[in-house]
Amino acid sequence: MATTQVQVSPDKEAAGRSNERTPDPCIVVIFGASGDLTKRKLLPALYHLQQANLLPKDFAVVGVARRPLEASFAPDMKEGIIAGGGVEDNDPKLAPFVDRVQYHAMNFDDAAGYDALKKKLAELDGKFNTKGNRLFYLATAPEYFSDIITYLGQNGMAQPKADKDGHAPWVRTIIEKPFGHDLESARALNDEVNKVFNEDQIFRIDHYLGKETVQNILVFRFANGIFENVWNRNYIDHVEITAAESIGIEGRGPFYEQAGALRDVVQNHVMELLSFVAMEPPVSFQADAVRAEKVKVWKAISPIHPADTVRGQYGPGIVDGKTVPGYRQEDRVHPRSQTETYAAIRLEIENWRWAGVPFYIRAGKRLPKRVTEITIQFKQPPMLLFKGGECHDSSAIKPNLISMRIQPDEGISLRFGAKLPGPSMDISPVHMNFSYADAFGKSSANGYERLLLDAMLGDGTLFAHRDGVEATWALMTPILKAWAETPVKDFPNYAAGTWGPSAADALLESEGRKWRKL
Ligand SMILES: NC(=O)C1=CN([C@@H]2O[C@H](COP(=O)(O)OP(=O)(O)OC[C@H]3O[C@@H](n4cnc5c(N)ncnc54)[C@H](OP(=O)(O)O)[C@@H]3O)[C@@H](O)[C@H]2O)C=CC1
Ligand SMILES: O=C1O[C@H](COP(=O)(O)O)[C@@H](O)[C@H](O)[C@H]1O
Description:
The structure is a single chain. This protein is 33% helix and 20% strand. By secondary structure, it is α/β, with parallel strands linked by helices. Strand 11 (317-319) and strand 12 (322-324) form a beta hairpin. The chain is globular. The chain binds NADPH dihydro-nicotinamide-adenine-dinucleotide phosphate and the ligand O=C1O[C@H](COP(=O)(O)O)[C@@H](O)[C@H](O)[C@H]1O. Ligand LXAUTJHC is lined by residues 177, 207, 245, 264-265. Keywords: Carbohydrate metabolism, Glucose metabolism, NADP, Oxidoreductase.
């Protein structure tokens, strides 16, 4: 049965930015400056902020890494921004931005390097009028988090002294994922970090929270009067969250071997999505209020039984028309690796809103396409009036769905049944579709822009809190433990370019459901 699209028009006049804020003058110090994340995401994001006049007039960026890149760092970054950011070489804001990007070579575990860094930052304060304010971004492998934090503390760089007027500059730190490896290591890292920084100085980043479409889940639910009334166990049959990627591990073998899909994306990105879908309305859009409601959701999830989990690993296959190797054939991956590149879980949230509503989540690499989507499937009406009788094909009567397309093709659609024109009461599913691009134009934001800006502003609403990180690890750790105790015999169990192992289908089929075709 054909599906009809009903477009939703944006209210162009009402669409516009409000609440734009400019941070204080500051230096952003990026540990891991020559790394992939800095090149592909962080510097382009800072540049886009500058282009949009959202950075303070007085700011500087200092990249820190091991290699001696003093001469080549700024030109390399300029090229990276041009290549990755859709920016022209002659963009008038590019040269002034690059002039403020500096490099400092040091080894993260060398105490003397921090002394030199401290002096360099003080000099740059003089040159760029950045007033001693610092945002330290830990964009490096997690084994260095603890060293860097400790040395910053020992050098007095974490808690700067107040001047004679009692004014102290601010210092904050953004810590990349993965924040810990399991519950125990996450707690230990939290303890280390909390010895040096107060909780309100710590910004544990999950770039999914910087995505417009993720923030829009809260707007959709709490800025509209009509959805929240049906957002509960009385009306919702089940919820699906899919985070599918067509890419493989992109040369990150050693990292991924230690991580796997559960640690890499489920513990953080997918759990964040789930909390936004399931949380109660917070009392305000302030960091503490929002984080408190998220933690309540994670804590209300019943312990996840290993039988409600599925793990997969891709073998060779075809993605986007190209033959790709299996996971075990990837560079620096063990030929008999037990690492999962796919995970699916069925879980329940034991609270008044959600009891009895299954949440099915799945995430994986080398699936047929890149798509992150949340589907809310509603219950059928109690009496299917049009079943039989004049309706020739009652299988066309589909349950209502709200699907939130996080990426790509960002937007939201609502599926409902409509009467097919003609003499009988035949029904066809149609979609009312809101597309971000159609409504507001294409956005170049990658999530990091919003989060870097918020951290410079000291707004932790869209960052993870200690309690939240530990709550999500508390859910994942027993699964990881059970999986480690029972090696898989049938890996690889899905071909690259397919939708994961058949056991993931069985997880839903045993309850009379199917993953939605994406
Ligand atoms: N890449 C991505 O898309 C994403 C990454 N992340 C997270 O971001 C973090 C960084 O990832 P990524 O950029 O991919 O990592 P890379 O391996 O590409 O970069 C690591 C950086 O750390 C530096 N470095 C490593 N060891 C030392 C040392 N002993 N002393 C000084 N510098 C050192 C390297 O410098 P040098 O070159 O001089 O050795 C390099 O700049 C990780 O925590 C990752 O999980 C999170 C989401 C996405
Ligand atoms: O954190 C990570 O996220 C990316 C996926 O991010 P997206 O914004 O492209 O959806 C994933 O590829 C990577 O393995 C993981 O470390």
